[in-house]
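Can you please make up a protein's amino acid sequence together with its fold in C-alpha coordinate form to help me picture the idea?
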Amino acid sequence: MAKASKNTGAMHEMKGVPQPSSVSKSTAEKVKARRKKAVKPEELLEGLLSGNKSALSRAITLIESTHPKHRKQASELLEKSLPHTRHALRIGITGVPGVGKSTFIESFGKLYTNKGLNVAVLAVDPSSKLSKGSILGDKTRMEELVKDERAFIRPSASGSSLGGVARKTREAIILCEAAGFDIIVIETVGVGQSETMVHSMTDFFLLLKLAGAGDELQGIKRGIMEMADAIVINKADGENVKAAKLAKTEFNRALHLFPEKESGWTPITLTCSAIANEGIEDIAELISEYVELTKENGYFQQRRNEQNKFWLLQTIESALKNDFYEDPVIKKALKEQLTALDENRTTPFEAANHLLSLHQK
Protein backbone atom coordinates (compact mmCIF):
# COMPACT_ATOMS: atom_id res chain seq x y z
CA MET A 1 0.00 0.00 0.00
CA ALA A 2 1.33 3.41 -1.02
CA LYS A 3 2.37 5.71 1.75
CA ALA A 4 0.07 8.71 2.16
CA SER A 5 1.68 11.98 1.19
CA LYS A 6 2.14 14.71 3.77
CA ASN A 7 -0.01 17.86 3.98
CA THR A 8 -3.06 16.42 2.24
CA GLY A 9 -5.55 17.98 4.65
CA ALA A 10 -8.33 20.30 3.54
CA MET A 11 -6.47 23.34 4.86
CA HIS A 12 -3.27 22.49 2.99
CA GLU A 13 -2.22 25.40 0.79
CA MET A 14 -1.26 24.44 -2.74
CA LYS A 15 1.44 26.13 -4.76
CA GLY A 16 0.41 29.38 -6.40
CA VAL A 17 -0.33 29.71 -10.10
CA PRO A 18 2.87 30.60 -11.96
CA GLN A 19 3.07 33.89 -13.85
CA PRO A 20 1.97 33.46 -17.50
CA SER A 21 4.84 33.53 -19.97
CA SER A 22 3.08 36.31 -21.85
CA VAL A 23 3.74 38.72 -18.95
CA SER A 24 7.03 40.54 -19.35
CA LYS A 25 9.24 40.37 -16.26
CA SER A 26 10.51 43.89 -16.88
CA THR A 27 6.93 45.20 -17.08
CA ALA A 28 6.03 43.41 -13.84
CA GLU A 29 9.03 44.97 -12.11
CA LYS A 30 8.04 48.42 -13.35
CA VAL A 31 4.51 47.97 -11.97
CA LYS A 32 5.89 46.86 -8.59
CA ALA A 33 8.28 49.83 -8.51
CA ARG A 34 5.43 52.23 -9.34
CA ARG A 35 3.35 50.83 -6.50
CA LYS A 36 6.19 51.32 -4.02
CA LYS A 37 6.81 54.87 -5.23
CA ALA A 38 5.84 57.50 -2.67
CA VAL A 39 2.62 59.33 -3.47
CA LYS A 40 3.04 63.07 -3.95
CA PRO A 41 -0.05 65.22 -3.25
CA GLU A 42 0.94 67.61 -6.06
CA GLU A 43 0.94 64.82 -8.64
CA LEU A 44 -2.38 63.45 -7.40
CA LEU A 45 -3.95 66.90 -7.48
CA GLU A 46 -2.79 67.41 -11.05
CA GLY A 47 -4.39 64.10 -12.01
CA LEU A 48 -7.58 64.96 -10.14
CA LEU A 49 -8.03 68.29 -11.89
CA SER A 50 -7.60 66.61 -15.25
CA GLY A 51 -10.36 64.14 -14.40
CA ASN A 52 -8.04 61.13 -14.23
CA LYS A 53 -9.98 58.29 -12.56
CA SER A 54 -6.80 56.43 -11.61
CA ALA A 55 -5.54 59.50 -9.77
CA LEU A 56 -8.91 59.82 -8.03
CA SER A 57 -8.76 56.19 -6.89
CA ARG A 58 -5.23 56.65 -5.55
CA ALA A 59 -6.26 59.87 -3.81
CA ILE A 60 -9.16 58.16 -2.04
CA THR A 61 -6.86 55.29 -1.04
CA LEU A 62 -4.48 57.86 0.44
CA ILE A 63 -7.13 59.57 2.57
CA GLU A 64 -8.47 56.20 3.73
CA SER A 65 -5.02 55.10 4.90
CA THR A 66 -4.45 54.98 8.66
CA HIS A 67 -0.67 55.22 8.31
CA PRO A 68 0.62 58.30 10.22
CA LYS A 69 2.82 59.35 7.27
CA HIS A 70 -0.16 59.32 4.92
CA ARG A 71 -2.33 61.51 7.15
CA LYS A 72 -0.19 64.57 6.55
CA GLN A 73 -0.16 63.94 2.79
CA ALA A 74 -3.92 63.39 2.79
CA SER A 75 -4.50 66.64 4.69
CA GLU A 76 -2.31 68.52 2.21
CA LEU A 77 -4.17 67.02 -0.74
CA LEU A 78 -7.56 67.93 0.69
CA GLU A 79 -6.49 71.51 1.40
CA LYS A 80 -5.26 71.93 -2.17
CA SER A 81 -8.39 70.30 -3.59
CA LEU A 82 -10.89 72.55 -1.79
CA PRO A 83 -10.44 75.64 -4.03
CA HIS A 84 -11.19 73.46 -7.06
CA THR A 85 -14.34 71.78 -5.76
CA ARG A 86 -17.49 72.27 -7.79
CA HIS A 87 -21.02 72.45 -6.46
CA ALA A 88 -21.90 68.90 -7.38
CA LEU A 89 -25.27 67.54 -6.32
CA ARG A 90 -24.82 65.08 -3.45
CA ILE A 91 -27.48 62.38 -3.28
CA GLY A 92 -27.69 59.84 -0.46
CA ILE A 93 -29.42 56.53 -1.18
CA THR A 94 -30.27 54.01 1.51
CA GLY A 95 -32.49 50.99 2.01
CA VAL A 96 -32.45 47.53 3.54
CA PRO A 97 -30.40 44.73 1.91
CA GLY A 98 -32.25 43.24 -1.04
CA VAL A 99 -34.14 46.41 -1.91
CA GLY A 100 -32.10 46.73 -5.13
CA LYS A 101 -29.85 49.70 -4.33
CA SER A 102 -27.10 48.75 -6.79
CA THR A 103 -29.53 48.05 -9.65
CA PHE A 104 -31.32 51.32 -8.93
CA ILE A 105 -28.10 53.33 -8.81
CA GLU A 106 -26.97 51.86 -12.13
CA SER A 107 -30.20 52.89 -13.90
CA PHE A 108 -30.18 56.22 -12.06
CA GLY A 109 -26.54 56.92 -12.92
CA LYS A 110 -26.96 55.97 -16.58
CA LEU A 111 -29.82 58.46 -16.84
CA TYR A 112 -27.46 61.29 -15.91
CA THR A 113 -24.45 60.11 -17.93
CA ASN A 114 -26.68 59.86 -21.01
CA LYS A 115 -27.42 63.55 -20.47
CA GLY A 116 -23.69 64.34 -20.56
CA LEU A 117 -23.15 64.62 -16.80
CA ASN A 118 -20.34 62.97 -14.82
CA VAL A 119 -21.48 60.65 -12.03
CA ALA A 120 -19.44 59.36 -9.09
CA VAL A 121 -20.76 56.54 -6.89
CA LEU A 122 -19.29 56.10 -3.43
CA ALA A 123 -20.59 52.70 -2.35
CA VAL A 124 -20.14 51.55 1.24
CA ASP A 125 -19.97 47.81 1.98
CA PRO A 126 -20.44 46.38 5.46
CA SER A 127 -17.34 45.05 7.19
CA SER A 128 -17.26 41.73 8.99
CA LYS A 129 -16.97 42.03 12.76
CA LEU A 130 -14.86 38.86 12.78
CA SER A 131 -12.52 39.10 9.78
CA LYS A 132 -12.76 42.91 9.38
CA GLY A 133 -13.05 42.31 5.62
CA SER A 134 -15.61 43.44 3.04
CA ILE A 135 -16.75 41.97 -0.26
CA LEU A 136 -16.68 45.32 -2.15
CA GLY A 137 -18.72 43.85 -4.98
CA ASP A 138 -20.59 46.96 -6.16
CA LYS A 139 -18.59 47.25 -9.38
CA THR A 140 -19.62 43.70 -10.26
CA ARG A 141 -23.30 44.50 -9.69
CA MET A 142 -23.17 47.69 -11.80
CA GLU A 143 -21.86 46.11 -15.00
CA GLU A 144 -23.07 48.82 -17.39
CA LEU A 145 -22.29 51.87 -15.27
CA VAL A 146 -18.75 50.71 -14.50
CA LYS A 147 -17.98 50.72 -18.25
CA ASP A 148 -19.37 54.23 -18.73
CA GLU A 149 -16.64 56.81 -19.41
CA ARG A 150 -18.60 59.44 -17.49
CA ALA A 151 -18.98 57.30 -14.38
CA PHE A 152 -16.70 56.44 -11.46
CA ILE A 153 -17.54 53.78 -8.87
CA ARG A 154 -15.58 53.48 -5.65
CA PRO A 155 -16.52 50.77 -3.11
CA SER A 156 -15.20 51.29 0.42
CA ALA A 157 -15.46 49.26 3.60
CA SER A 158 -17.55 50.70 6.42
CA GLY A 159 -15.01 49.49 8.99
CA SER A 160 -15.99 50.62 12.47
CA SER A 161 -17.88 53.66 11.20
CA LEU A 162 -21.52 54.01 12.14
CA GLY A 163 -24.38 55.61 10.22
CA GLY A 164 -24.02 53.54 7.06
CA VAL A 165 -21.00 55.38 5.65
CA ALA A 166 -17.26 54.79 5.49
CA ARG A 167 -14.74 56.58 7.71
CA LYS A 168 -13.60 58.95 4.97
CA THR A 169 -16.73 59.34 2.82
CA ARG A 170 -16.86 63.10 3.44
CA GLU A 171 -13.30 63.58 2.23
CA ALA A 172 -13.96 61.36 -0.81
CA ILE A 173 -16.82 63.69 -1.77
CA ILE A 174 -14.40 66.64 -1.88
CA LEU A 175 -11.99 64.73 -4.12
CA CYS A 176 -14.80 63.69 -6.49
CA GLU A 177 -15.92 67.29 -6.79
CA ALA A 178 -12.37 68.42 -7.53
CA ALA A 179 -12.20 65.74 -10.23
CA GLY A 180 -15.14 67.39 -11.99
CA PHE A 181 -18.09 65.15 -11.15
CA ASP A 182 -21.54 66.73 -11.39
CA ILE A 183 -23.53 64.12 -9.45
CA ILE A 184 -22.18 62.26 -6.41
CA VAL A 185 -24.21 59.31 -5.17
CA ILE A 186 -23.49 57.86 -1.73
CA GLU A 187 -24.85 54.33 -1.36
CA THR A 188 -25.02 53.35 2.29
CA VAL A 189 -24.46 49.98 3.91
CA GLY A 190 -28.19 49.33 4.12
CA VAL A 191 -28.76 47.72 7.49
CA GLY A 192 -31.83 49.49 8.82
CA GLN A 193 -33.02 52.65 10.57
CA SER A 194 -29.66 53.64 12.07
CA GLU A 195 -28.25 54.96 8.80
CA THR A 196 -28.63 58.65 9.47
CA MET A 197 -25.01 59.79 9.09
CA VAL A 198 -25.35 60.01 5.31
CA HIS A 199 -28.08 62.62 5.82
CA SER A 200 -25.47 64.97 7.27
CA MET A 201 -23.37 64.96 4.09
CA THR A 202 -25.89 65.03 1.25
CA ASP A 203 -28.27 67.51 -0.38
CA PHE A 204 -31.02 65.01 -1.13
CA PHE A 205 -31.79 61.87 0.88
CA LEU A 206 -33.58 59.04 -0.94
CA LEU A 207 -35.01 56.04 0.89
CA LEU A 208 -35.67 52.86 -1.11
CA LYS A 209 -38.41 50.53 0.10
CA LEU A 210 -40.02 47.23 -0.90
CA ALA A 211 -43.73 46.52 -1.12
CA GLY A 212 -45.07 43.66 0.97
CA ALA A 213 -42.05 43.51 3.27
CA GLY A 214 -43.86 44.84 6.32
CA ASP A 215 -42.25 48.26 5.88
CA GLU A 216 -45.64 49.98 5.58
CA LEU A 217 -46.03 49.67 9.36
CA GLN A 218 -42.71 51.46 9.82
CA GLY A 219 -44.14 54.49 8.08
CA ILE A 220 -45.52 55.95 11.30
CA LYS A 221 -42.12 55.75 13.01
CA ARG A 222 -39.60 58.55 13.09
CA GLY A 223 -35.86 58.29 12.42
CA ILE A 224 -34.74 57.56 8.91
CA MET A 225 -38.28 57.97 7.53
CA GLU A 226 -38.49 61.49 8.87
CA MET A 227 -35.18 62.43 7.26
CA ALA A 228 -36.06 61.16 3.79
CA ASP A 229 -36.74 63.76 1.10
CA ALA A 230 -38.42 61.09 -1.00
CA ILE A 231 -39.39 57.43 -0.67
CA VAL A 232 -39.20 55.14 -3.68
CA ILE A 233 -40.89 51.76 -3.82
CA ASN A 234 -38.55 49.69 -5.99
CA LYS A 235 -39.29 46.47 -7.88
CA ALA A 236 -42.71 47.74 -9.00
CA ASP A 237 -42.93 45.29 -11.88
CA GLY A 238 -44.74 42.09 -12.85
CA GLU A 239 -47.11 40.80 -10.20
CA ASN A 240 -45.69 43.28 -7.69
CA VAL A 241 -47.19 46.39 -9.38
CA LYS A 242 -50.43 46.28 -7.37
CA ALA A 243 -48.61 45.82 -4.05
CA ALA A 244 -46.23 48.69 -4.93
CA LYS A 245 -49.14 51.07 -5.63
CA LEU A 246 -50.74 50.12 -2.32
CA ALA A 247 -47.44 50.68 -0.46
CA LYS A 248 -47.09 54.06 -2.19
CA THR A 249 -50.49 55.13 -0.81
CA GLU A 250 -49.64 53.92 2.69
CA PHE A 251 -46.29 55.70 2.79
CA ASN A 252 -47.77 58.95 1.48
CA ARG A 253 -50.30 58.83 4.32
CA ALA A 254 -47.54 58.20 6.84
CA LEU A 255 -45.46 61.13 5.55
CA HIS A 256 -48.32 63.51 6.33
CA LEU A 257 -47.99 62.61 10.01
CA PHE A 258 -44.51 64.15 10.21
CA PRO A 259 -43.93 67.85 11.00
CA GLU A 260 -43.32 70.22 8.09
CA LYS A 261 -39.69 70.20 6.96
CA GLU A 262 -37.52 73.27 7.45
CA SER A 263 -36.71 73.13 3.74
CA GLY A 264 -40.34 73.82 2.83
CA TRP A 265 -40.33 70.60 0.82
CA THR A 266 -43.08 68.02 1.16
CA PRO A 267 -41.68 64.48 0.69
CA ILE A 268 -43.67 62.15 -1.53
CA THR A 269 -43.53 58.48 -2.48
CA LEU A 270 -42.87 57.22 -5.99
CA THR A 271 -42.64 53.75 -7.51
CA CYS A 272 -40.09 52.42 -9.95
CA SER A 273 -38.61 49.31 -11.49
CA ALA A 274 -34.85 49.71 -11.67
CA ILE A 275 -34.37 46.46 -13.56
CA ALA A 276 -36.94 47.52 -16.22
CA ASN A 277 -35.69 51.13 -16.10
CA GLU A 278 -39.20 52.45 -15.41
CA GLY A 279 -39.96 55.47 -13.23
CA ILE A 280 -36.29 56.57 -12.98
CA GLU A 281 -36.88 59.76 -14.98
CA ASP A 282 -39.68 60.77 -12.59
CA ILE A 283 -37.29 60.46 -9.64
CA ALA A 284 -34.67 62.62 -11.36
CA GLU A 285 -37.33 65.27 -12.09
CA LEU A 286 -38.45 65.19 -8.46
CA ILE A 287 -34.87 65.80 -7.30
CA SER A 288 -34.56 68.72 -9.74
CA GLU A 289 -37.74 70.24 -8.28
CA TYR A 290 -36.32 69.86 -4.78
CA VAL A 291 -33.03 71.54 -5.72
CA GLU A 292 -34.84 74.41 -7.45
CA LEU A 293 -37.12 75.00 -4.46
CA THR A 294 -34.40 74.85 -1.81
CA LYS A 295 -32.05 77.09 -3.78
CA GLU A 296 -34.80 79.69 -4.14
CA ASN A 297 -35.69 79.74 -0.42
CA GLY A 298 -32.04 79.59 0.70
CA TYR A 299 -32.27 76.21 2.44
CA PHE A 300 -29.85 74.52 0.03
CA GLN A 301 -26.96 76.82 1.01
CA GLN A 302 -28.02 76.73 4.67
CA ARG A 303 -27.77 72.95 4.59
CA ARG A 304 -24.32 73.10 3.00
CA ASN A 305 -23.22 75.44 5.80
CA GLU A 306 -24.56 73.01 8.40
CA GLN A 307 -22.66 70.19 6.71
CA ASN A 308 -19.42 72.17 6.94
CA LYS A 309 -19.95 72.75 10.67
CA PHE A 310 -20.71 69.07 11.21
CA TRP A 311 -17.55 68.09 9.30
CA LEU A 312 -15.53 70.48 11.46
CA LEU A 313 -16.72 68.84 14.68
CA GLN A 314 -16.22 65.34 13.28
CA THR A 315 -12.67 66.20 12.17
CA ILE A 316 -11.80 67.50 15.65
CA GLU A 317 -13.28 64.38 17.25
CA SER A 318 -11.33 62.10 14.92
CA ALA A 319 -8.06 63.98 15.50
CA LEU A 320 -8.46 63.84 19.29
CA LYS A 321 -9.22 60.13 19.13
CA ASN A 322 -6.14 59.40 17.01
CA ASP A 323 -3.96 61.53 19.27
CA PHE A 324 -5.21 59.66 22.33
CA TYR A 325 -4.63 56.13 21.04
CA GLU A 326 -1.23 56.95 19.49
CA ASP A 327 0.17 58.34 22.74
CA PRO A 328 2.94 55.91 23.87
CA VAL A 329 1.97 56.40 27.52
CA ILE A 330 -1.66 55.56 26.75
CA LYS A 331 -0.70 52.49 24.72
CA LYS A 332 1.19 51.04 27.65
CA ALA A 333 -1.40 52.02 30.26
CA LEU A 334 -4.25 50.70 28.11
CA LYS A 335 -2.74 47.19 28.08
CA GLU A 336 -2.39 47.33 31.86
CA GLN A 337 -5.99 48.46 32.33
CA LEU A 338 -7.33 45.77 29.99
CA THR A 339 -5.49 43.15 32.02
CA ALA A 340 -6.87 44.66 35.22
CA LEU A 341 -10.37 44.44 33.77
CA ASP A 342 -9.91 40.75 32.95
CA GLU A 343 -8.77 40.13 36.54
CA ASN A 344 -11.65 42.20 38.02
CA ARG A 345 -9.22 44.64 39.66
CA THR A 346 -10.94 47.69 38.16
CA THR A 347 -14.12 48.78 36.42
CA PRO A 348 -14.50 50.16 32.87
CA PHE A 349 -15.29 53.61 34.31
CA GLU A 350 -12.28 53.69 36.65
CA ALA A 351 -10.01 52.48 33.84
CA ALA A 352 -11.33 55.13 31.45
CA ASN A 353 -10.89 57.94 34.00
CA HIS A 354 -7.35 56.76 34.73
CA LEU A 355 -6.39 56.74 31.04
CA LEU A 356 -7.97 60.16 30.41
CA SER A 357 -6.14 61.63 33.40
CA LEU A 358 -2.84 60.32 32.04
CA HIS A 359 -3.52 61.84 28.63
CA GLN A 360 -4.37 65.23 30.12
CA LYS A 361 -0.97 65.36 31.81
